[in-house]
Amino acid sequence: MKSITSSSYAVHFNETAYTELNAHLKKANYSKVFILVDENTHNFCLAPFMAEIEGDYDFEIIEIEPGEIYKNIETCTQVWEVLSELDADRKSVLINVGGGVVTDLGGFVASTFKRGIDFINVPTTLLAMVDASVGGKTGVDLGALKNQVGVINQPVMVLVVSSFLQTLEERQLHSGFAEMLKHGLIQDANYWNDLKILNNFTQLDHLIHHSVTIKNKVVLEDPTEQNLRKILNYGHTLGHAVESYFLESPEHELLLHGEAIAAGMILEGFLSHKLTGLPYTELETIKKVFLSRYSKVEFSKNDITEILKLLKFDKKNSHGNINFVLLKKIGEPQIDVKVPQELLEQAFTYYKE
């Protein structure tokens, strides 16, 4: 499968990924090679990954706890301290083998350790393959608030090896699939139409490649998210608020990222119908597709009040305004849309119907 070239690095797939990694390690002459994993990827992904590395390198494995609740500065501090204790220098490299938590956090750790060392992302979840490891966004959460601290910094390369998907539960695959559906909604109606009828996850390689291509095209045009790149946040303004609320609320079960974003895309689909012209038939299709794949999230009146309070922390906000990405139609987004408070509450009513 053809590699995808971004601004300063490339995304390599399957066999080509290991060929390019080995060539790079041989050429770069790193002083030490650090590999960041969480408990899950240590158990299921590290051994097959290491088996493909050719050559004798000074490896050190760093393991963190799995899950979004550990994507924070405290975990970063632990990793920075381990790097220091193990004599990492500016000619070291950090290879992040894991899902979005590992690649986001690992990229941030590498970008800030000794003012920046090389890092390589090896996403092992569908979500990380199509979203978290592409585009140079790194960072961690601030309490329950998503991705409040971070930098945009590009990896040396990204390696997408689809065999790692065999280690995932189906719920995790569905979480990543939500981001792929989003790519169709914001850029490619034909892709959306193909994905909405997909009934199994056995042949995903070409679809992953297409999603990475869509995201890479957007990022190349707007690497620092001044305009176009904002479209990648469709469903995320409310979706991130939902995810954050469920993360910090002890009486609710945690939602995976894709599950929260799926709800967010229905909610913001309703706003799109009201404000930017999304046809009602397309809104109903969006709702039907997501609710056929993702369990409906139960929201009490108090839940909705608390979720809406979290919108003020959204990263797209400016000058006190909450800015939404909405759809004019499937495949055609509109950025920086202001939404009246009463419509936000109506969106939850529509979602619950």
What does this structure look like?
- The chain has 353 residues and is an alpha/beta fold.
- It has helices spanning 14-28, 39-44, 46-51, 73-85, 100-112, 126-132, 170-187, 189-196, 205-221, 236-248, 257-275, 280-293, 301-309, 341-352; strands at 4-5, 10-13, 33-38, 59-64, 93-98, 118-123, 140-142, 145-149, 157-160, 323-329, 332-338.
- The model has no long low-confidence stretch (mean pLDDT 95).
Structure, briefly:
This protein is of the alpha/beta class.
Q: What oligomeric state is this? A: single chain
CATH architecture of the largest domain: Up-down Bundle
What is the CATH class designation of the largest domain? Mainly Alpha
CATH fold field value of the largest domain: Dehydroquinate synthase-like, alpha domain
Within CATH, the superfamily of the largest domain carries the name Dehydroquinate synthase-like - alpha domain
Uncertain runs are none
Computed Rg: 20 Å
Helix content: 40-55%
Euclidean distance between termini CA atoms? 43 Å
Please, how many helices? 14
Calculate the mean pLDDT score and round it: 95
Approximate strand percentage: 15-25%
| Number of structurally distinct domains | 2
Could you spell the SSE succession in H and E letters?
EEHEHHEHEHEHEEEHHHHHHHEEH
Spatial strand arrangement across the major sheet: 1-2-9-6-5-3-4
How many strand segments? 11
User: Shape, please?
Assistant: globular
Class based on secondary structure composition and strand pairing: alpha/beta
- Main sheet, how many strands, which sense, barrel? 7 strands, mixed
Pfam families: DHQ_synthase, DHQS_C
Cofactor: NAD(+); Zn(2+); Co(2+)
GO molecular function, one term: nucleotide binding
Domain 3-dehydroquinate synthase N-terminal: 62-174
